[in-house]
Amino acid sequence: MNKGIAIYPGSFDPPTNGHLDLIQRGSKMFEELVVAVLRNSEKSPMFSLAERLEMLRQITSDLSNVRIDTFDGLMVEYAKSIDAMCVLRGIRAISDYEYELQMALMNRKLEPSLETVFMMPAVKYSYVSSRLVREVAQAGGPVSELVPEAVEQKVREKLDPAYKLRETNVIEVPKRRKKKA
Ligand code: PNS
Q1: Per residue in 14-69, pLDDT tens?
Q2: Helices marked H in 91-148 — which ranges?
Q3: N or C, which end of the chain has less CB nearby within 10 Å?
């Protein structure tokens, strides 16, 4: 184990199996891993910041050296404020590399003492991204193999508000009848 704090920054909208895989790997490498969710993302997210924090806390509850936090502004400034020595980022395929390299070099320019460490998630998650999870879910497709169970639940609730009430037996929601031809 590497002594010190590492930061795993991102949008996590929503967290995927690939993210969790990387968090698990990172938690074995560093004394403490801080998963840091960007607060001021320009994109209009599917999940609010609070929802993303809740999902991340749920799926990492068994990892004692993982902490979930938020940050705003420059990532390197936040990393400095928590004494992080490393930034952890995942690379799934060569297509990620260009953007990640650019970001890592810009971060190095901004803060030369902060190293970026790239890790690959398990190959079975190499095609999984938050963007595709949102797209598949919004089009009514299954995401159970792409995200942790707790996240899948939240995705269902988000897209079908009646789901939660039905699951908790608060209301009895009639199933849709097929229209007669
Ligand atoms: O999950 P994402 O959207 O790929 O994460 C990107 C993120 C949040 C790591 C990146 O946009 C970031 O660090 N933003 C904070 C602002 C910053 O420091 N920008 C300079 C980095 S080149």
Answers
A1: 999 999 999 999 999 999 999 999 997 667 899 999 999 999 999 999 999 999 99
A2: 94-110, 130-138
A3: C
Write the residue with the smallest CA distance to atom 4 of ligand 1: 10
38 lines ligand 1 (CB under 6 A): yes
SS3 (DSSP) at 70: strand
110 in contact with ligand 1, CB cutoff 6 A: no
Q: Which helix (H) or strand (E) holds 3?
A: strand 2-10
pLDDT in tens, 140-161: 999 999 999 999 999 999 998 6
Token code pair at residue 180: 């007669």
Residue 142 CB neighbour total at 10 angstroms: 9
Rounded Cα–Cα distance for residues 167 and 152 (Å): 13
Residue 167: predicted pLDDT: 60
